[in-house]
Design brief:
InterPro entries: Cbr1-like_FAD-bd_dom (IPR008333), FAD-bd_FR_type (IPR017927), Riboflavin_synthase-like_b-brl (IPR017938). By secondary structure, the chain is α/β, with parallel strands linked by helices. 24% of the residues lie in helices and 30% in strands. It contains seven helices and 13 strands. It binds flavin-adenine dinucleotide. Flavin-adenine dinucleotide binds at residues 53, 64-67, 80-83, 85-86, 88-91, 127-128, 131, 229-237.
């Protein structure tokens, strides 16, 4: 529920398990529109897994969801990778954070995107999915799974996957190609037999993810987990 009366969020905040205060420790612009934010705090009891997200109270009546891209419980570190896409409350909140700011949050919750038993995984998304991809990388490597990251990104962000150390990445310009079924059908990941049985995790823009899912369903035997992170004209998801 991204928007609701203030009292509903007040009650939810009191009832859900809390995180100790998080303090902004470091900020890094990976491009003019993508920011890495490092928080420090007492995260010994942090419940962190692939797909963990935090609901940030970005206004009295607004909550926006962001993925924890990395966490180190012992050393008290938690990171996000955020898309500063415009004047939305979440984007503005993340843009205005300064080193030393303190943020009060509930414990992360987790979407179960990750299937440890899958032999091959394909993770697709855009700028909003970079944090999820970053959280996937160490476990995929540790468990010797075959994986590919596929992104659609604005030109100014095309170098970010490499900056984040993401391997096996293919980056496409965000120019509407993932809205065209015929174009998606021609992607090597769809055409080669190698990835026919893969697990596909589709996030980022709703319309792109839905188009990709239609093609996967029609042309492969893969399993799909779709979770759109944003949709044109819609506040929060
Ligand atoms: C489980 C989950 C995890 C997420 N993790 C991350 C994350 O780690 N990093 C991250 O950056 N985002 C992440 N998102 C996406 C983020 O919550 C949305 O982009 C959210 O809409 C941003 O809120 P806002 O207040 O800035 O904009 P809103 O008020 O929600 O929207 C204002 C306008 O901006 C548009 N808009 C929203 N997001 C984008 C965008 N990315 N690009 C272009 N236009 C946009 C909307 O369509 C709307 O027209 C996640 C979402 C979910 C559901």
């Amino acid at each position: 529920m991204p928007n609701a009366p203030k009292w509903i969020f007040d009650v939810a905040e009191r009832l859900l398990p809390k995180l100790p205060l998080m303090e902004v420790a470091h900020l890094e612009l990976l491009s003019p529109s993508v920011r890495k934010i490092r928080f420090s705090g007492d995260f010994r009891n942090l419940n962190y897994k692939v797909g963990s997200y935090i609901d940030f109270r970005v206004g009295e009546k607004e909550v926006r969801r962001y993925t924890a891209s990395y966490a180190d419980n012992k050393n008290g570190i938690l990171e996000l990778i955020v898309h500063l896409h415009g004047e939305g409350s979440g984007s503005k909140f993340m843009k205005n954070l300064k080193v030393g700011d303190k943020v009060d949050n509930n414990q992360p919750r987790t979407y179960r995107y990750y299937d440890e038993s899958a032999e091959k995984l394909v993770i697709f998304g855009d700028e909003t999915s970079l944090g999820l991809a970053r959280s996937f990388l160490p476990v995929l490597k540790k468990n010797n799974q075959k994986f590919k990251f596929i992104f659609e990104l604005d030109d100014e962000n095309k170098a970010i996957p490499e900056l984040l150390g993401l391997e096996n990445c293919i980056v496409f310009p965000k120019k509407g190609s993932f809205r065209k079924e015929e174009w998606v059908s021609e992607l090597p990941i769809i055409k080669t037999l190698d990835w026919q049985e893969a697990n596909f995790v589709l996030t980022g823009n709703v319309k792109s993810a839905q188009t990709f899912r239609r093609v996967i369903k029609a042309k492969t035997n893969g399993n799909v987990y779709l979770h759109g992170y944003w949709l044109e004209g819609k506040n929060g998801l």
